[in-house]
Amino acid sequence: MRQFTEAERIQRVWDKEAAKTVLCRNMYYMAANQREEALEQLWVKEPEHAATASYGKNWGYYVGLDEIKRYYLDGNPFGAKGTMNCHPVATIRVEEAEDGQTILCQWYNASYETRLVNGVLTPLWICEKGNADLVKEADGWKIWHYFIGTDLQTEAGVNYAAQPVDLPDEENPMAVEFGDPTVKMDAYITRYNYYPYPAIPEPYETFRPELGCGPEGNPNYKA
User: Which residue among 88, 136, 149, 203 has its CA within the 20 to 30 Å range from the CA of 26?
Assistant: First the structure.
């Protein structure tokens, strides 16, 4: 790894804190059901980044900012009034590229939501791994790729051990919410315990798609 000057080291500390701020702001926007504000203020704008932006979950990826808006805004399961949800950014790992243009982030959430399941307002406990690739644009650090891998979900007060291992998608509120992604694939598989994708960020020189949490970085991706 290259040696940085004192000024560069200070800048890199500042960059990492700025990246954490972006992801925490995104969580607060999500909790407040302010999805449009999140996409407008925190996500990429420059055309080359907007075209390759992605939002992924266990079942695939929405690719391109227009497709992300179709999912995140048009398909908002909480509606105009919203409902209770919290997906905190915890145990975060942040790694900035040597060239200072991108940052890879990973964290783990113990989350909850209250959402309609088969027409009934239902509280859910959710454990999930979060990843984001941030890129530096003219007005600061922006979310470029975002991935949430759900490890488990269970209705509050229900015995998780009694839940089927493979919950059918049509009965899985997380799968129903994710809808019809641009790239359909088994992106995150929890049947055999810990899933190694996305990898824990490690030092790197410059961004390459296979390092990130977009579809190209997934071991199951086929061009």
Answer: 203
Computed over every residue of the chain, the mean pLDDT equals: 92
pTM over the 0.90 mark: yes
Say how many domains are in the chain: 1
Residue pointed to by tokens 């027409």: 119
DSSP state of 145: E
CA dist 148 and 143 (Å) reads 13
Measured distance CA(89)–CA(202) in Å, rounded: 19
- Taking Cα atoms as reference points, which of 214, 179, 216 lies closest to residue 55? 214
Q: By residue range, what is the domain housing residue 175?
A: 6-217
| Domain-embedded: residue 201 | yes
19, 141 contact by CB (below 8 A): yes
pLDDT band at 118 (very low <50, low <70, confident <90, very high): confident
Helix (H, G, I), strand (E, B) or coil at 136: strand
Helix 6-31 × helix 35-42 angle, to 10°: 160
Please provide residue 36's backbone torsions phi and psi, each rounded to the nearest 5 degrees: -65, -40
How far apart, in whole angstroms, are the C-alpha atoms of residue 118 and residue 15?
A: 44
Give the pLDDT of residue 168. Answer: 84
Q: Is 48 helix (H, G, I), strand (E, B) or coil?
A: helix
The span from the CA of 219 to the CA of 10, in Å, is 35
